[in-house]
Design brief:
391 residues, alpha+beta, Butyryl-Coa Dehydrogenase, subunit A, domain 1, Butyryl-CoA Dehydrogenase, subunit A, domain 2, Butyryl-CoA Dehydrogenase, subunit A, domain 3, two-stranded antiparallel sheet, 12 helices, 49% helix
């Protein structure tokens, strides 16, 4: 089934590219694009089989994301984040899974995981309030996953007792249109506002549990897909579209240079410039290296899970090391290609200038913070204690 989805996605790439300007003007991906992706089965790739999902190989999922982003960065970005959320919902208690998919297995969810909201322990669950930013694709979702610190019953002035993800239906939150940006304009990454909403215990998931590759939903969804580390999948979800943008930028640059004549060099064809050939060789290698390491690390984790073995901390930190550096490699490649493309690359409507803006916008996501991830990896190599973090 994954091959059929990938074939369907590839058939749509010219359409996604044609709609890129429309997505920027709307400041969200057009509904027709999301509908077309839904019809390929893309959003079901990481969804449990018992809810009409495919439980696909995550490498196939990330490959589809990369290809979508090679046509349009914003479409690739929201495809990635909306597409990964079924994986986490599968870890929630069965009651929550039934609420999301029991009546409609095509239900989609957006998210905002930074713990900017506050939850207070109450009988049977939590009272949640707050404002969360950057909920990409929220216009195309009927539920949201929100990160929040849990305070004791003394209220916000009490002590923090947990960090959880809260699952909230659309009629319990507001989407505030604030997305006026220079990159990833089509992602509609707007604010989510929740005011004193009761969230039952079964609609929450402790990040300490996901950190140790556990979730109550594994009882109903025992497949190895749902035993992979949360942060390995979710950070790769952020890097994959950026590598896709670099892939699209590379293709456009090569095409432009084959047609470009350099007036300053007596009409020389840009493709005849030996330095141009060296630049694309370097850029291509950076893109390939980024992708190869990202996927190789996921494969290594899968192999351990399939054997029933625990994924060691050094591998989880290696995933994060290569993920943040993979993002940087992709952006370095885009920068080099953009700088060597000439003035025509600046024109509105070209993929290259949009990829340059979109990739740099994606770079500022918290998952791409290189120093913290690299320090954790280096500290472990030196035998230092590692504090829990995004690994």
């Amino acid at each position: 089934m994954s091959k059929e989805v990938l074939d369907g996605v590839r058939d749509l790439l010219p359409t996604f590219r044609e709609r890129a300007d429309e997505a920027e003007k709307l400041r969200q991906v057009p509904d027709a694009t999301v509908k077309a992706l839904e019809e390929t089965g893309f959003f079901r790739m990481l969804q449990p089989r018992r809810f009409d999902g495919l439980e696909s190989d995550p490498v196939d999922f990330f490959t589809a994301v990369k290809e979508i982003a090679s046509a349009d960065g914003s479409t690739g970005w929201i495809s990635s984040v909306l597409g990964v959320h079924p994986w986490q919902v599968a870890l929630f208690p069965d009651e929550a899974q039934q609420a999301v998919w029991g009546e409609d297995t095509s239900t989609r969810l957006s998210s905002s995981y930074a713990p900017t909201g506050k939850a207070t322990l109450t009988e049977g669950g939590y009272t949640l309030s707050g404002t969360w930013s950057f909920s990409s694709g929220s216009a195309h979702a009927n539920w949201v996953l929100l990160g929040g610190l849990v305070f004791s019953e003394d209220g916000p002035d009490g002590s923090v007792v947990d960090f959880r993800t809260f699952l909230v239906p659309r009629d319990h939150y507001d989407v505030v249109d604030v997305w006026n940006v220079v990159g990833l304009r089509g992602t509609g990454s707007n604010d989510i506002v929740v005011k004193d909403v009761f969230v039952p215990q079964a609609f929450t998931l402790s990040m300490s549990d996901t950190g140790r590759c556990f979730g109550p939903g594994q009882e109903q969804n025992p497949g190895t897909l749902y035993k992979l580390p949360f942060h390995s999948l979710f950070t790769t979800t952020i890097s994959s579209p950026i590598v896709g943008m670099a892939t699209g930028a590379y293709a456009e640059h090569v095409d432009m240079q084959q047609k470009r004549v350099r007036a300053a060099y007596l009409g020389e064809k840009a493709s005849s410039d030996p330095f141009a050939a060296v630049r694309i060789a370097r850029a291509g290698s950076e893109i390939d290296a980024a992708w190869a390491l990202l996927m190789s690390n996921i494969r290594e984790e899968q192999a351990l899970v399939e054997k029933g073995e625990r994924i060691p901390l050094n591998l989880r930190l290696k995933v994060r090391r290569d993920q943040v550096l993979g993002t940087q490699r992709a952006i370095d490649a885009i920068d080099a290609l953009f700088e060597a493309s000439g003035g025509r690359a600046l024109a509105e409507g070209t993929y290259l200038q949009r990829a340059w803006r979109d990739a740099h916008a994606g770079r500022v996501h918290a998952a791409n913070d290189p120093e913290r991830s690299l320090k954790m990896y280096g500290d472990l190599e030196f035998g230092h204690k590692i504090d829990p973090g995004m690994y």
